[in-house]
Amino acid sequence: MRVMAQIAMVMNLDKCIGCHTCSVTCKQTWTNRTGVEYAWFNNVETKPGVGYPRRYEDQEQWKGGWMLDKRGRLVLRSGGRVKRLLSLFSNPDLPSLEDYYEPVTYDYDNLISAPASPDMPVARPRSVLTGRPTAITWGANWEDGLGGAPENAGADPNLSGEWAQKVKFEFEQTFLFHLPRLCEHCLNPACVSACPSGAMYKRVEDGIVLVDQDKCRGWRMCVTACPYKKVYVNHATGKAEKCTFCFPRIEAGQPTVCSETCVGRLRYLGLLLYDADRVGEAAATPDEKDLLDAQRGVFLDPHDPEVVAAARESGIPEDWLTAARRSPVYDLVMRYKVALPLHPEYRTLPMVWYVPPLSPVLDAVDAAGGDQDDPDHVFAAVTRLRIPLEYLAELFTAGDTDVVGGVLMKLTALRSYMRERTLGEPGDDTALKAVGLTRGEAEDLHRLLAVAKYEDRYVVPAAHKEDAAALSAMEDRCPVETSGDPEPRKIMLGIPTLRRDTTAGGRP
Amino acid sequence: MTAAPLSPAAAPASGTDLLLWVAVPYICLAVFAVGHVWRYRQDQFGWTSRTTQLLEHRWLRWGSPLFHLGAFMVIGGHVVGLAVPGSWTEAVGITEHMYHTTAVWAGSVAGIAMVTGLGMLCARRLLTRQIRLRTDRSDKVLFPLLSAAVLLGITATFAHNVFGAGYDYRSTVSVWFRGLFVLQPHPEAIAGAPLLFRLHALTAFLLFAAWPFTRLVHVWSAPIGYLARPYLVYRRRATTPATAAADSRRAA
């Protein structure tokens, strides 16, 4: 047993209102620079929808993640090592900028410098890449709230089974929810495995996956290998960049920017201990539907004295073990088992998990004339309602509807029990028992999911004092410096750098 | 056009010849070596292939593999032609005619692939606005210089060895080139070579001088080690090279 600690995230999708505050604050912090205008380390997409970049979930096309070859061995879908080196000159599976969108700015200057005229001056959109006026035809979140669903959403790669024929995009019959996405900081990261330079790495201490900007040579194999398409090419520096899990904040014991600013308070951060020796075996589980359990099997119980002893042996500090025992992520993923990974079938063992949304089911109960508060109605709906359930299963359980259905029933039972409790009734726990929760557990889970206090949501142990020298050495060095400066500028994290002229050819 | 047979008693080299064929090559090689050391120590962040595939991929898809694979063959051909003396190849039973025929055929194929590829890469750089705007000063030196060296080389081959009477550069240009590296320069050996060969040699040395300051440095980062490395890379925060570098900067 080789115990490692991972800082992981869970998102409670029922609470996501699609306000994009996480994306905007993330962009302001990390990608408001030349070369990554198109990149969103955190983005929120509407599901069903094609996502960002377009149809990234279609791995037949984009070749992301891992797969099992004919002999059952775990291999990168984009091919072996030799094939990867041969495609250095031109990567056949790299999304082009059109697959993301063409970033634009506006002629704001025209609003104040236009000569007097009977018409109002307008700020026309201008491509950041060419500096020329352009028509905006796509964006990182073009289909927000199912915008253009009849035309676009049918291309969602998750709408693949026979059941997908029944999905309706007419206003009255459709369903939608928001899916915030960031780098999954996987246990078995395909991007790291595909990097020819060895510039990408997973940190031993906290499992954060990073790109060493000094070692990246711009071979861009990571972009293809990541099935979530969460590694981006900076077209100004020619190097790869990705979500850093806000490691300077995490090291200081603070939540990531996306979590801190989430107005729905739906994000949870905490430690998970896992057995690094079992990662490869779990990722190579033959049946895709067993991957969820296989990944849970890699996680270790921080209350188990044997695990604690092994963790101490591998140098995990005592306060980290305490934090692991308090981890809300451990509770949601392992104790209550209400959180599920996004696309486990990519075999990267992702570490940002989701509590699936109940809302599409409840909407359907309403539409069918049922009572949202009656668990019997909802349970019946959960099993009868093929479409959202199968869609959610496609996202979170490699198509296994039983697992998603089980989680939704658990959430329904919890909701109905806690409603009774809040209304001053003793509460009927038959439904709770049916989903395997005790009254005490229900109170705990309710506190975690619904009350969601700051100190319960974020249990982030600070990095250790013995590493203080290393930390302060990182301080004067932004990991994603801008190129083109005569000498590397010292950029203090947290202080916005000078706003550069974002039109490519200087001011038009 | 054939060169006069070379003899040790050839006329002493003129001042111009000394400058062009001894001083300039040595200066260029010195800049090449020192430049690389300086760049590697100072500019790891800028050390990249500077890919533009994200912005344009249709031309790159053909142009880049053609150029790179052609370049590998061309470089291989140059190593054989310049570094291996004719007497060695004849000692293993390869006659001058056999060598020449192979060199002309393989060289032509490689050269045409490289020129076509480079042409496509230059074209996309010029014609695609978003790439043209991201072309920096080093590219503005590199692309013309590389094109000049490649075009002069292929023109020399075609003019003299494909359509011409044949020119045995191995007894002149190669002698001069090897002499530079054993510190016994023979400027007179190349001084009599045809103009196209001399210009090609000169642009090639200028390219060497420019090399460390351009994106060509990515050549030295060809990721061969990837073939043998474990897939997953773990690193400790405390021992990252970035930290070590920052520490050493601080100490300095």
UniProtKB/TrEMBL annotation, chain A:
<keyword id="KW-0479">Metal-binding</keyword>
<feature type="domain" description="4Fe-4S ferredoxin-type">
    <location>
        <begin position="7"/>
        <end position="36"/>
    </location>
</feature>
<protein>
    <submittedName>
        <fullName>Nitrate reductase subunit beta</fullName>
    </submittedName>
</protein>
<keyword id="KW-0411">Iron-sulfur</keyword>
<keyword id="KW-0813">Transport</keyword>
<feature type="domain" description="4Fe-4S ferredoxin-type">
    <location>
        <begin position="207"/>
        <end position="236"/>
    </location>
</feature>
<dbReference type="Pfam" id="PF14711">
    <property type="entry name" value="Nitr_red_bet_C"/>
</dbReference>
<keyword id="KW-0408">Iron</keyword>
<keyword id="KW-0004">4Fe-4S</keyword>
<dbReference type="Pfam" id="PF13247">
    <property type="entry name" value="Fer4_11"/>
</dbReference>
<keyword id="KW-0249">Electron transport</keyword>
<keyword id="KW-0677">Repeat</keyword>
<dbReference type="InterPro" id="IPR038262">
    <property type="entry name" value="Nitr_red_bet_C_sf"/>
</dbReference>
<feature type="domain" description="4Fe-4S ferredoxin-type">
    <location>
        <begin position="173"/>
        <end position="206"/>
    </location>
</feature>
<dbReference type="InterPro" id="IPR029263">
    <property type="entry name" value="Nitr_red_bet_C"/>
</dbReference>
<dbReference type="InterPro" id="IPR017896">
    <property type="entry name" value="4Fe4S_Fe-S-bd"/>
</dbReference>
<dbReference type="InterPro" id="IPR006547">
    <property type="entry name" value="NO3_Rdtase_bsu"/>
</dbReference>
Automatic annotation (TrEMBL), chain B:
<feature type="transmembrane region" description="Helical">
    <location>
        <begin position="59"/>
        <end position="83"/>
    </location>
</feature>
<dbReference type="InterPro" id="IPR003816">
    <property type="entry name" value="Nitrate_red_gam"/>
</dbReference>
<keyword id="KW-0560">Oxidoreductase</keyword>
<keyword id="KW-0813">Transport</keyword>
<keyword id="KW-0249">Electron transport</keyword>
<dbReference type="InterPro" id="IPR051936">
    <property type="entry name" value="Heme-iron_electron_transfer"/>
</dbReference>
<keyword id="KW-0479">Metal-binding</keyword>
<dbReference type="InterPro" id="IPR036197">
    <property type="entry name" value="NarG-like_sf"/>
</dbReference>
<feature type="domain" description="NarG-like">
    <location>
        <begin position="18"/>
        <end position="237"/>
    </location>
</feature>
<keyword id="KW-0472">Membrane</keyword>
<dbReference type="InterPro" id="IPR023234">
    <property type="entry name" value="NarG-like_domain"/>
</dbReference>
<keyword id="KW-0349">Heme</keyword>
<feature type="transmembrane region" description="Helical">
    <location>
        <begin position="18"/>
        <end position="38"/>
    </location>
</feature>
<dbReference type="Pfam" id="PF02665">
    <property type="entry name" value="Nitrate_red_gam"/>
</dbReference>
<keyword id="KW-1133">Transmembrane helix</keyword>
<keyword id="KW-1003">Cell membrane</keyword>
<feature type="transmembrane region" description="Helical">
    <location>
        <begin position="141"/>
        <end position="163"/>
    </location>
</feature>
<keyword id="KW-0408">Iron</keyword>
<feature type="transmembrane region" description="Helical">
    <location>
        <begin position="103"/>
        <end position="121"/>
    </location>
</feature>
<keyword id="KW-0812">Transmembrane</keyword>
<protein>
    <submittedName>
        <fullName>Respiratory nitrate reductase subunit gamma</fullName>
    </submittedName>
</protein>
<keyword id="KW-0534">Nitrate assimilation</keyword>
